[in-house]
Every structure is written in C-alpha cells, then in structure tokens.
Design goal:
Layout lengths: L1 H16 L3 E9 L2 E8 L6 E6 L20 H4 L1 H6 L2 E9 L15 H18 L3 E6 L2 H11 L8 E5 L28 E6 L12 H6 L6 E5 L21 H15 L1
Parallel strand pairs: 3-4, 3-5, 5-6, 6-7, 7-8
Antiparallel strand pairs: 1-2, 2-4
Helix pairs in contact: 4-5
C-alpha cells in the first residue's frame, strides 16, 4: 500500500518537472518575505494558491526543491498544473522560519497580510483569477483571508478541504474551528471537500452540517469516499489526506473552479 502512495507522489511531481517553476521570495510585510514555489502553465485559466496544513513549514529551497512535500495539496501541485492552473505553494514567512512556524499564527493580522501579498502578487503575475485552496489547518488560513482581505488582496474564491471543525486539546494555541466563525457574509464562491471517513479528531464529518451553517448559503459541499488510510489520523496519508484518491479529488476541485471562475 505504501508503494501506491509513493507512486501517487511521483505522478504528482512529474507534471511540474515539465513546466517552468521557480522559488520566489514575495515581499509581504516590512522586512518580511514569503518564499513561494511558482509553477507556470501555458495560458492558465486561473491561479490556485495551495495552503498546506500542520505547522506550514515546507522548506522550499532557492532551487525550488520542497523538503516537506507530503501534504495533500503540496504533493498534488503538479496535478493542478496539469489541469491548466498556474500554481503557487507558499512556505512560512521569513520571520516564522523556526518552531512553532505557523502554529498559533494563522488567525493573526500578520498572516492575513502575508496571504494578501501573495494573492496580489499572483494576480499581477498572471492576470488571472486567484483561488485559495486550503487543507486541514490551511482552512483556518483561508478563513483569515475570507474575513480580513479585500480588493486586490482578496482571492476570487475558496476551496476548503479537510476543514478544521472542532477544537483540539491545544485549542488555546490555535485559531477557532470554522464551525465557530461567522463566514456567512463571504461573497466569493466556496467549495467544501471532506472525506466521509476522515479520522482526524478535529475534522469529524459529523460536524459538516454545522460548518455549512457558518458559510454563505451558496457554499457547496462534496463528501468523498475510498482511498487508503494509513499512518496517523491527522497525517497526510490517512483519509484526512485523500491518500489513493488524490487525482479524483483534484479533478473535482478543478472542474468546480472552472465552473465558478
């Protein structure tokens, strides 16, 4: 089963290798930059900014190599590019390059400023709509963007995958789950994708109806099944990370973005 997971990663990495990609240090706040991996696609239909979960530290090297690339959205970046999107994968900002990285930071005004600068940079670079796609703790980053960003810094839409729905034991150190935020006023399209058997304790599928009450009435929910769940409940290769069904999930997200772009 592990061989299948490794094969999925290899397939995901094959596409960006054939496309122009580079590491770019995007200025975000005074004296602060955020290194991103930018993947060019010929005549992209839109840009997807892929926000990883966990502590958010990817270790993007100046040559574009990503040290920590197991996260669902990070390992599928090539699959998004293969479907006609320009892709941006942000790392932690330059003032958060040591532990705890993004832990306890995702709801801060500084994080909103970093996200807004990256979104505005992507929009200026490609001249296309910019969609924010977050997974797990990355959905809390997306919530910060939805609440705090406006104008050229706001994304054109949101995709929330494996959304944080409940508080953890370390809840005092993390932003609130999205079930405790009022996001009903969000004007952009919102898609929620969740595995029906997500084993992560802070992402229980039973709370999805509660999440939808806190999103705009136009938000759409897609629950998926299948795949191979292995490793820690909240880790990249359990159902929480769509192990074994990555291509199907990426395709569904891509089709939805094109329909709502």
């Amino acid at each position: 089963m592990r061989a299948l997971a490794i094969l999925c990663i290899a397939l995901g990495l094959a596409a960006p290798a054939a496309r122009a990609q580079q590491a770019v240090d995007v200025p975000t706040r005074p004296g602060v930059t955020d290194r991103v991996l930018a993947i060019d696609t010929p005549s992209p239909t839109a840009v997807v900014v892929l926000i990883s979960g966990g502590a958010g530290h990817l270790g993007i090297a100046p040559n574009g190599v990503i040290r920590n690339d197991g996260n669902f959205l990070v390992r599928t970046r090539g699959q998004f590019a293969a479907r006609g999107f320009a892709v941006v994968v942000p790392d932690v900002p330059s003032d958060r390059e040591r532990p705890p990285y993004l832990r306890g930071f995702r709801a801060s005004p500084e994080h909103a400023a970093d996200l807004g600068a990256v979104i505005a940079w992507a929009r200026a670079r490609w001249g296309k709509p910019v969609w924010l796609v977050g997974t797990s703790r990355g959905t809390q980053s997306a919530a910060t963007a939805a609440l705090d960003l406006h104008g050229a810094q706001a994304p054109d839409g949101f995709v929330l995958t494996s959304t944080i729905l409940a508080r953890s034991r370390n809840s005092a150190e993390e932003p609130p789950p999205l079930t405790e935020l009022d996001l009903t006023g969000v004007k952009q399209p919102v898609l929620v994708v969740h595995h029906a058997e997500d084993p992560c304790g802070v992402c229980p599928p039973a709370l999805l109806p509660e999440l939808m009450k806190h999103l705009p009435p136009t938000a759409q929910l897609e629950t998926v099944t299948g795949g191979i769940s292995q490793g820690g409940a909240c880790e990249a290769f359990s159902h929480h990370g769509y192990n074994g069904i990555e291509d199907r999930v990426v395709n569904d997200i891509s089709v939805w973005i094109r329909q709502h772009g």
